[in-house]
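Build the 3D complex.
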Amino acid sequence: MSPHQISAPRDHKNTHGSVASYTVGFVASLILTGLSFGAIMGRWVSHDMALPTLVCLAVLQLLIQLVFFLHMGTAPEQRSDLAALVFTVLILATIVAGSLWVMHNANINMMPTGMSTDSAKLKP
Amino acid sequence: MDTSTTNIPSPSHGDHAHSHDDSRNTVMGFWLYLMSDCLIFSVLFATFGVLAANTAGGPDGRDLFKLSYVAGETLILLITSFTFGMAMIQMHAGAKSKVILWLAITAAFGAAFIAMEIYEFAELLHEGAGPGRSAFLSAYFVLVGTHGLHVTAGLMWLITMIHQTMTYGLDGIVRRRLACLSLFWHFLDLVWICVFTFVYLRGML
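Done.
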């Protein structure tokens, strides 16, 4: 972030992006997408590490596209946009993680089909 | 505007600053809409995450998804993000004909993406793996279909903006609308990152 951007919040030029910034975003996205597909199609990572790897690559690519394509930044005029995004991510994480957690617990505590209420009570 | 105040520099300057702020407010309002759209997708992703294993004895992701095909779709959508960026750069440079050219290229790739998705859905239906087959497939069709509908709406908006740029030139209103469409289009690419990661690649594990 250049000091110019902070001292001149009315200057929109810096938040428009340039051919260079779009190219950097595009190439970085290509590489990260390639790594994601390669990790699964080419079995580059072990089965246990596959999901953490995918999540890391996806989060990295989301951040790169937010910065280079959507021009998210910390310049004063962008702060309200950024605040809205951060709040949305908080709600989003709560909805997704909460649903998965609650439903996973409901699944593993569900009485197996074919088991009666009485036999379930007898189980230690 | 309050005419009794004496420290307004000049009417034209004041109007310019005013319209500029209006435009900025519109783009911010559109950003807030996108955030609410984000919540729609988060609920659909949560639903898919919960139901992904419920295949009701039917086919799962490993049986159905062709990753090389999905990689092709991903590449096409990524290219549209880049070409739309080029259109925005030309817009700020005031080069009307180049804006139209880049928007047309974006529309062509966007249409290719939609065509690939429709073909993919048709294949699944043909294999008997429609949304009625299992909870997994219901959630899959709703999530990926909602993204596809968004891209289709974006494509129609894109074609409208090509026409408006041709008719009105790059005036303030056209610029503001293009700025909103740019956010919308890049946002859909962000959603697709989550789709290919958590639906297609995750489905292969």
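The CA atoms of residues 106 and 145 of chain B lie 20 Å apart.
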